[in-house]
Design brief:
2 domains, 384 residues, alpha+beta, Cell Division Protein Zipa, Chain: A, 10 helices, 6-stranded antiparallel beta sheet
Amino acid sequence: MTDFQISLLIAGGTLVVGVVIFNKWQEYKAKKTVENAFADGHDDVLLNPEVPVDVTMRQEPVFAEKELDVEPAVKKIRPSVQTQNELLTTPEDEAVEASATQNNETAVEPSAGSLQSVVARELPVDELIDCAIPLEFDTPVRGEKILSEIAELKYVGKKPVHFIGQRDDGERDVIATGGAYTSIFAGIQMVSRSGPLNELEYSEFIMKLRAIADNLNAHPDVPDMNKVISHARELHHFVAEHDAQLSVNVASNGAPWALNTLLAALEKMGFDQRPDGRLMMPDGDGGSLFTLSTNVGVSEVMTSRLTLLLDVPCVAPARDGFGAMAACARSLATRLGGTVVDDGNQPISKAALDEIAGQVNEFYGAMAEAQIPAGSLRAQRLFS
């Protein structure tokens, strides 16, 4: 081997070592950035509503909806949003002061009378969103016998099926061992985000239901398929027009953030990691307030963008999911040296956030008027 070849090998080895050292240094800096951001001594607006957050922003987030033809009657829910991607401009930038623990003062509070029948006692068979078919018995039937017959019928296609029983005093309840029932009601959900109930699914449901009725000596009262399918399509129209999601992003102002350190810090903030890789902020009652995505694959070690997403119809107005999500985004931006931006990478202003908050409240009002209040069991089933 000549001296020239040896010198080339040495130069190449030095270059490789330099690249490795540089990458390790970048990872170290990213890790230290996150560690310093979440070190003790930083106030958190999620925990302390008194802490002001100074983040300069100029434009707003937008509703992430499916591409649909929206009728004027539905469009009035969001009067200032003309299209999905339109951004509102504001005359000046302002600092944002918000708290995840404090509800919006203008949050919609539906009247108790109008929703009492909806939320007082939500059973798994709901005649507003299910095709509920009664099966009557000549004599009361024990709950354990009914349960053994209906155990296998939980889904038809992607549509869930539920049953409730009616006792001899006329009360309806979940079918239980030891109970006696004069009739049962079988309900197949007429719509979900995957689409409305179709003729094939309805026919299969009726076929399986007739077999159950024969085994229980019951008399089913089967409604006309055309009417059921027509109602399912009407309900799907409502779901499609109210399938609204809001997202905000936190973009790094400089170097990316170390993912392993960031995930550990986010879990300490209260996030729970889901199997799909997203992190969920619990609502305190077993549900989800909003989610967070790191926008990178499982093999990545750093990220420069976080996305927070609110599933609007699935969160009750009283929880102020939008306010909590915005406060969390601002807290992360302040800690990590980032900026809160929309999907177009434009900074978001306080005026724009206030505009969206008002539209969210109007959206909640429209859902309550339709007797499908946001966050209710009805809404969670329809928007699943």
